[in-house]
UniProtKB/TrEMBL annotation:
K(+) binds at residues 59, 118, 160. HAMAP family: NADHX_dehydratase, NADHX_epimerase. Keywords: ATP-binding, Isomerase, Lyase, Metal-binding, Multifunctional enzyme, NAD, NADP, Nucleotide-binding, Potassium. It comes from the Bacteria. Binds 1 potassium ion per subunit. It catalyses: (6S)-NADPHX + ADP = AMP + phosphate + NADPH + H(+); (6S)-NADHX + ADP = AMP + phosphate + NADH + H(+); (6R)-NADPHX = (6S)-NADPHX; (6R)-NADHX = (6S)-NADHX. This is Bifunctional NAD(P)H-hydrate repair enzyme.
Length: 479
């Protein structure tokens, strides 16, 4: 499990740990991890040139101490001090190791360095960059019109300027890192979009904080977590004990969505798939998936993918069964908040909106949701009193109690029509096996992304390729 903590949680844990250690020991641990990560990126020390952008806090202190270690190894290190007052011990250490320093006077370098280390601000930073910091960054790590750069940027703890606890980006400038070296635990911005791509690859340095940290509200499941949650048929299993998933999706207008939702449901994780809906779709479903049967009892429903104006009726019929359900696409529009069966009892559900659909549910603009995904996913989960899977490059699975699982699997090629239908069917199948909605949504989105990666191999895919690859991903997880 990759856990992401907030600034306040990190500061509390740091205070508890620091009280057991010599002064400065934590910063030394952080700086050493940072320096070795930079050395790895440089691929050597002699002849390599590193510039440190240094702000007024401990983040700049980390950069200066790491710079001292790099300078002792033979790297040419220069610190650009962006504040009158920087970490004094760090600066003394850099000077003693032979590193140079200068203030920022608006003039850039004669020759670009190999790596720029962003020690402008860390978890103590306010969003955005001051003009001097933005200008120094642009001078030492210039970008062309396409955003390409000849210099690699390593962020200390977080890319300066991003909102650490929310994953939001500031209105103004922020650092865009190739590598972020973080300490003790991940921060929310490392996982949550739109900030997470600004972090580049994220490298976690263990500084001993673990025992002092509380359980994280924001986590990302890893392969071993998913493997532990995966339903496996017992020796005495039969198709009904494994769970039956029903699909009410597709329409005369969008028959393909019905087929793709069935393809996701028929990944082999549940014991049986039923299709209920448009007769012309049913014929095509039977042709493509001979194992799929018609009306009967189910342990879960997937409703709405590619539905037409009858999606509301399909949703009501599914809710009346009082089994767990996935509510996708057109069916989302017919949903009342909170999600309840007709008799008022709560029904375990997973809502699977993309940003546009979530915006409609909450009566806001799509751009608002995209800018503040964590907050809006949580708000929807609370309002509907159910699990919400907000789909995107890093999908968020929000529980009404505030916990969030971030999905980090899946290539950009997964942004292809019908991929969401496959996901809805897959999560429905996992619900049928008995996983609770939070687990089913998180495991389903992880498998979906991993199947897309497997199918893509770096190239283009269509939605049915994703469904076809789920079995292979499950097989490798179980191996
Ligand atoms: N916690 C841990 O476990 C460990 C933490 N460690 C390290 O400590 C870091 C946190 O350090 P920190 O608390 O000193 O704050 P930090 O992020 O350097 O910045 C605050 C300073 O910046 C300023 N400032 C604010 N916004 C600004 C802006 N937009 N643009 C420009 N300036 C801005 C503000 O000054 P002001 O402008 O308010 O005068 C303030 O003084 C953490 O990220 C990690 O790297 C490791 O060493 C060891 C383990
Ligand atoms: N840039 C991206 N990178 C990775 N995955 C993405 C990206 N964009 C979308 N996805 C995933 O692709 C799927 C798209 O689903 P959706 O928006 O419902 O499309 P459709 O309605 O065509 O099926 C979701 O699982 C989403 O998480
Ligand atoms: K930083």
């Amino acid at each position: 499990m990759r856990a992401a903590h907030t600034e306040a949680q990190v500061r509390d844990a740091e205070a508890a740990l620091a009280s057991t250690l010599a002064d400065g020991a934590l910063m030394q641990r952080a700086a050493t991890g940072l320096a070795y990560a930079v050395l790895g990126l440089l691929g050597g020390a002699y002849g390599r040139r590193v510039v440190l952008l240094v702000g007024s806090g401990a983040n700049g202190g980390d950069a200066l101490h790491a710079g001292a270690l790099l300078a002792r190894r033979g790297v040419a290190v220069e610190a650009v001090l962006l504040s009158e007052a920087v970490h004094a011990e760090g600066l003394a250490a850099l000077r003693a190791a032979g590193g140079r320093d200068r203030g920022w006077d608006g003039t850039g370098p004669r020759r670009l360095p190999d790596v720029v280390v962003d020690g402008i601000v860390g978890i103590g930073g306010r969003p955005g960059l001051k003009p001097d910091a933005a200008a120094a960054l642009a001078a030492y790590a210039p970008e062309d019109d396409t955003g390409a750069r000849p210099v690699q940027v390593v962020a200390v703890d977080v890319p300066s300027g991003v909102e650490v606890d929310t994953g939001r980006l500031p209105d103004g400038a922020h650092v865009r890192a190739d590598l972020t070296v973080t300490f003790g635990t991940h921060k929310v911005a490392h996982l949550v979009d739109p900030a997470s791509p600004a972090c580049g690859a994220v490298h976690l340095v263990d500084i001993g904080l673990g025992p002092h940290l509380p359980p994280a509200d924001v986590v990302a499941l890893q392969a071993d977590d998913v493997a532990a949650l995966l339903p496996r048929p017992g020796r005495a299993a039969h198709k009904y004990t494994r769970g039956v998933v029903g699909v009410r999706a597709g329409s005369g207008r969008y028959p393909g969505a019905g087929l793709l939702a069935v393809a996701g449901a028929a990944s082999g994780l549940a014991g049986m798939v039923r299709y209920v809906g448009d007769p012309t779709v049913l014929d095509r479903v039977r042709e493509a998936h001979p194992e799929v049967v018609g009306v009967g009892r189910v342990q879960s429903w997937t409703v709405g993918s590619g539905g037409d104006n009858r999606a509301g009726a399909a949703l009501r019929a599914a809710l009346a069964d009082e089994v767990p359900l996935v509510v996708d696409a057109e069916a989302l529009r017919h949903l009342d908040a909170p999600v309840r069966a007709e008799d008022g009892s709560s029904v375990p559900a997973v809502l699977t909106p993309h940003a546009g659909e979530l915006a409609s549910l909450l009566g806001v603009e799509r751009a608002d949701v995209e800018a503040d995904q964590l907050a809006y996913a949580r708000r929807a989960a609370q309002r509907y009193d159910t699990v919400v899977l907000l789909k995107g490059p890093h999908s968020l699975v929000a529980h009404p109690d505030g916990r969030v699982r971030v999905n980090t699997t899946g290539p950009s090629w997964l942004a292809t029509a019908g991929a969401g239908d496959v996901l809805a069917g897959l999560v429905g199948a996992l619900l049928a096996t008995g996983l609770d909605p939070f687990d089913a949504a998180a495991v389903g989105s992880w498998l979906h992304g991993a199947a897309a990666t497997y199918a893509s191999q770096g190239g283009p895919i269509v939605a049915s390729d994703v469904a076809d690859a789920v079995g292979e991903v499950v097989r490798s997880l179980l191996a």
